[in-house]
Design brief:
Layout: H1 21-30, E1 35-37, E2 43-45
Antiparallel strand pairs: 1-2
Length: about 55
């Protein structure tokens, strides 16, 4: 259904806490996840690119 919006509720974002942010960042970089930084310095990974990457 490409290009059509669903009327069903969906999860659009979630937050996770990691024990070692530096190691997590290296893993994201090594697996070619594009990471952006928020104004507060938090890592943001788009949900659009994640399906099939893991």
């Amino acid at each position: 259904m490409t290009g059509k919006r669903s009327s069903l509720p969906a999860s659009v974002a979630y937050t996770v806490t990691v024990k070692d942010p530096a190691t997590t960042r290296r893993l994201l970089d090594a697996n070619q996840f594009p990471v952006r930084r928020s104004a507060a310095g938090d890592a943001l990974v788009s949900g659009v690119i994640t399906p099939g990457k893991y």
